[in-house]
Amino acid sequence: MLRFNDLADFSREEIKELIALAGRLDAKPEPRALEGKVLSLLFLSPSLRTLSSFQAAMLRLGGGSFVISPEMSIHGLESRYGIVMDGTAAEHVREAIPVIASYGDAIGVRAFAERRDINHDIADNDFKGYTSLITDKPWINMESAIDHPCQSLADWKTMDDLGVPDGGKFVISWAYHPRALPLAVTAATIHMAAKRGMNVVNLRPPGFELPPAIMDKARKAAAESGGSVSETTDRREAMEGAHVIYAKSYSSTRHYGDKLGDQALREELVHWCVDEPWFANARPDCKFMHCLPVRRGVEVTDRILDGPRSTVIKGARNRMYGQMAVLYRMMKG
Question: Which one-letter DSSP state was computed for residue 239?
Fold first, then answer.
């Protein structure tokens, strides 16, 4: 495996093989599998689970890792091209990324969307620019402007662990958040569930429609796997017979890059907080999923997060096992 960038790059069978490997490495550890191997980790945006789960994964496989972040490791990192570097940034990505990659056997890169131009972010132009500088090492997308394959792999494994059927109903719902957040997790999740063969419903308020490129990608995956993808603003309709509800906030696509417009729209939507009444028409065993971090009492209530429906801790732990499988395939074969 030379790169782990998008679940769309893999067949359903290949993804299931990765998940099976993750389960095997959990049940039967191989603490020397990657002995002597080094993973370089470049974080151009903040992280808790991604950073710690990749470090833990390498340690459990007998390897090591190091972390570079502009906020904690160097005096600024410049990504703009064709400028005179007479400001605070001491390094440019054109030198920094190849050097960081050269110190390891593989490299992971994380860089959020800047959320100024929606077409620019959907095309993932910034992330493609960063990874184009990695010429001779395998690399992992640890979240880009429009994708988060590590999260999606863990979510697929979590549903397998819970016995959620491939053809079950999966509701991905917008949830209130005081800030405009990236589209990456939502875009990756709707595609993941469609590729798994699920009947996916995107539940969202007006103004938060997902762009056609995201919906078309998910519908293509659904057509290949026997699933379906639809969109609604009607919560009752969406939750009817649901096996899973996955909550995630993101920027208004109607006001993308317009902070004031987005804020004015979302201020009317504080009631989009997942609570038990949301599950009235769902299956009795319907599960709640979230990628974390989550704002309690804002995106979802305490009684859901702390109750039997919640899978958030199990899902977070599966980040480590899914990434162990990716690293094993990438560095060991």
Answer: H
